[in-house]
Amino acid sequence: MITLLAFVVAIALLVVFHELGHYWVARRCGVKVLRFSVGFGKVLYSKRLANGTEWAISAIPLGGYVKMLDEHEGEVAPEELDQAFNRKPVLQRMAIVVAGPLSNFLLAIVLYWALFVHGVPGLKPVLGEVPPDTPAAAAVMQPGETITHIDGEPVPSWQELRWMLLDHALQQAEVKIEGRSAQGEPLAHVLDMRGLNANELDGELLAKLGLQLYQPHVLPVIGKLSEGGVAQQAGLQPGDVVMNANGRAMQHWSELVEVVRTHPGQTVQFDIRRGEQVLSVTVMPNAVDEGGEPVGKIGAAPQVDKAVWESMLTEVSYGPLDALLQALRKTWETSIISLKMLGKMVLGEVSMKNLSGPITIADYAGQSAEMGLVSYLGFLALISVSLGVLNLLPIPLLDGGHLLYYAAELAKGSPVSEQAWELGQKIGMALLGTLMVFALYNDITRLISG
Question: What integer pLDDT is reported at residue 354 of this predicted model?
């Protein structure tokens, strides 16, 4: 229920903001808007305002649209021709079209600004063990090292570390890393990602680079259980000590995590100590998609000393002006990385498994909502940027396709022919249909593997 509600709220908010951009600029350009609809299909509720616009809520809450007066859509009364979209100068039509994606970028900036002012919780970028034969090992990076800068840019948290390195990974570049040893000594490294296969971005990037988050010694003791989660349903309780998992002795919580993660959808036998009793519990981890690969999750967290846990936490926050600058930077970087990923998918350098459809997006919406308002707002900002980037792609049917036609009209001094429009529409439908098939296939594959 939370997943469905979080998804519907996300789609409604993002689509309304997108369409409001089209609507607001259209009205400023003197175009009559016939209908502003949240959702597709049958109209469930509508109200007509004094300016003639019908505001509607429709049955299928997976999008929305703005319908403008246009001679291509039907007959227009002679007295209203000056309000028709197709009669407006090409620059005004371009402004109306681009206003939708720009509204999504604006929403992302506002959301990121609010998050940075409030403060975004995260984990300190402290390295754990560095596996041999990895780029991190070749760069002589050290366990216990705190990463402070990447190419001169401060690294505020472990979460930001991954995001910052993703761009360099897409470029297959070398990156300069500055850090501080556990003893406080300054360190400098060159992390070579030139040999990283772009398809390896499907999985956990940091792990493939040999960068693992520092884990204090945490005993395999159940601390907190997700309500209704696999662990709770199997009968595990806070305070249970996991002695063995599938016959393997457990000395550290990370060992338990490894067993669970590597057995998605498979039974795992736990031998636990509860007080004076020794019990056997069978658990079947849920399969959760991470980078296109299923990993096991049981909805359990370890019992951790509060002081130890707090020593690992950090909060990324800024003053109002700096937060705005950071929000602009974050929106820009997210847009560029999204474009690079799309480009590499088209070229076949990155697997199409990275493409997600509505089922996966709904799942992410639910997961972020369960984690709290900060995580959910971060999810909304990311999806808003993605929606803006997607709509600017030069594919007919999308806003970017319309901009391409209007740019051609501007260059040649006359509108693109009807035949070209119709051909473009067919090509656009084929391209978008193919993308949707891939996305739904990935969604269904993830569901089946779960």
Answer: 67
Active-site positions read: 19
Collapse the DSSP code of 323 into the 3-class scheme (helix H, G, I; strand E, B; otherwise coil) and give the result.
helix
Contact 118, 376 (CB under 8 A): no
Q: What is the pLDDT of residues 322-344, one digit of tens each?
A: 999 999 999 998 999 888 878 77
pLDDT above 60 (res 315)? yes
* Coil vs helix vs strand at 377: helix
Judge whether 405 and 422 are in contact, CB under 8 Å: no
> Quick one: pLDDT at residue 74?
83
- CA neighbor of 283 nearest in space, from 222, 203, 239: 222
With 0-12 / 13-18 / 19 or more C-beta atoms within 10 angstroms meaning exposed / middle / buried, residue 107 is buried
Q: Can you give the pLDDT at residue 7?
A: 83
Residue 290 CB coordination number (10 Å): 14
Task: Give the model confidence (pLDDT) of 214-238 as tens digits.
Answer: 878 788 999 988 888 889 999 999 9
443 or 175, which is more confident? Answer: 175
Residues 6 or more apart whose Cβ sits within 8 Å of residue 27: 33, 51
Amino acid letter, 161: L
DSSP string over 183-212: TS-EEEEEEE-TT--GGGGGS-HHHHHT--
- More confident: 448 or 102: 102
379 close to 115: Cβ distance less than 8 angstroms? no
- What's the chain's length in residues? 450
- What mean pLDDT do residues 122-140 have? 90
Whole-prediction pTM value? 0.79
- Domains with residue ranges and CATH for the chain: 2-118+376-449 (no CATH), 122-215+312-316 (2.30.42.10), 222-303 (2.30.42.10)
CA–CA–CA angle 279, 280, 285 (5° rounding): 135
Q: Is the dihedral of CA 112, 115, 117, 123 positive or negative?
A: negative
Radius of gyration of the chain (CA): 26
Is the pLDDT at 415 greater than 70? The verdict is yes
DSSP string, 37-102: EEEEEEEEEEEE-TTSPEEEEEEEEEEEEEEE--TTTS---GGGGGG-GGGS-HHHHHHHHHHHHH
